[in-house]
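sorry to bug you again but im stuck and you know this stuff better than me. theres a chain ive been looking at and ive put its sequence and its fold in token form underneath. id like you to explain what the token line says about the fold, in plain words if possible. anything you notice is useful, everything is just below.
___
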Amino acid sequence: MTETDVLVIGAGAAGLAAARAASSEVARVMLVDPEENGGILRRCIHDGFGLDRFGDDLTGPEYADRFSAEIAARPRIRRVYGTVTSLTRDRVAEVVSEAGAELVKAKAVVLASGSRERAFGALDIAGRRYAGIMTAGEAQKLVNIYGMGVGRRVVILGSGDVGLIMARRLTLEGAKVECVLEAAPYPGGLARNIVRCLSDFNIPLELSSTVVEVRGSSRLEEVVIARTDEHRRPVPGTERTVQCDALILSVGLLPVLSLVPYLETDKRTKRVVTDSCCGTSVQGIYVCGNASHIHDIADSASAEGELAGLHAARFALGKERRAVTVPVTAGSGIASVSPMKLVAGEPARLYRQKRGARSQRNGRAHAGRRRNARSRPAGRKGVVMKKFICVVCPRGCELTVDNDLYTPTVTGNACTRGRDYALSEYTNPVRVLTFNVRVAGGTRPVVSARAARPVRLMKVLPMARLARKLTVNAPVRAGQTLFASLLGERIIATASVAKAEKDE
């Protein structure tokens, strides 16, 4: 039996941070995951990572590489590419890898196993699961890792962040996204993604709408859409048909907790009950990241992972004692709160989800019309106004730029960053452009890339069309300049692809 001080299960944003934090306190840390460091971060070739942690706008692979470099430089961390098949209350885990099966006895365990998507079978939709019906994560892996197409005409069910991001991603790949449907009267994703994934490309967002039937032969051919009532149930007589060959599902994430069925869970949310130190009902077992609750951004998952790793290390050293806890209850207007217990004497970071309050504001802003449309109020000649949704932070302030007498003024912003964002969007809107480039002779068919600097919004689609025709030769390293000029912009790789070995 192998012994370790801290066992970290999962090498995503939370697991990497947990392993790094634990290795600063204890001598032996084992990090187990079947995939390479970063997990699903490797599929997330879009930007928006690292703003809080590194103060830099990174793509998913770049964010993962920053942590991976630190993990590789720490000899206290043993990296195992394998799967944990069981975990007892006494913290004995069975780990299966290419080297075989081994039992690992850990003094403390950090569970950072992430989440899984709701699949087609969990939905009340008539019809079979034809080819072309898949979750947003499956589509993301096919497009961003394997360089495959998922369809030419696409309908997306659910306005979660991954679904919104795939709406943009598929548009850049040349597909036509017919619409994004949301059964609730408000969108589920961040304002940032609604603006930059839907509004930028004029993709319709239909609130209070859902798919009630799928039709096809061997492959999906059409879907039947219906309006929903206040209880999110289809309204008879509102059905209409949309032709499509792909249906992407972004209808919620569920924490992966199959290893720990004995942990205390909340009866209403079905989540593991954790305290402000990421501790659970079983001493020595800590849960963090999306395994605890669904995080909007990877930075917050990493922050929680660091907290879990630190307290797991303290427990392994015998410095962590059972402390007094105070329960936290979701009050009026709050859907859920995490953590569910506060540890006396320990600082706490609370995550709460309002009952549609933020999302309703976003829904009014983006349902049916673009918010950056120009308007001329009556009685004020020469005045040009534009309205925007701020994407600097998740708050999503509604901003108004008033160009009265050719001097733009901004209202509605809660901070100076919001003002600067509105003025930039008013005068010269720019976007971080990310895409895939084909790789010849590599271990992967594509490599993720980005423009070295934000590009003007009007150049995004033309550059994406040109990028689909490009090919580079392996090997490719992250940070390498792939093309010196693509419509005047330098293109750099955001991931590495090794050269494939030739078969003898």
Summary: Residues 357-382 have pLDDT under 50 and may be disordered. Residues 371-427 form one domain.
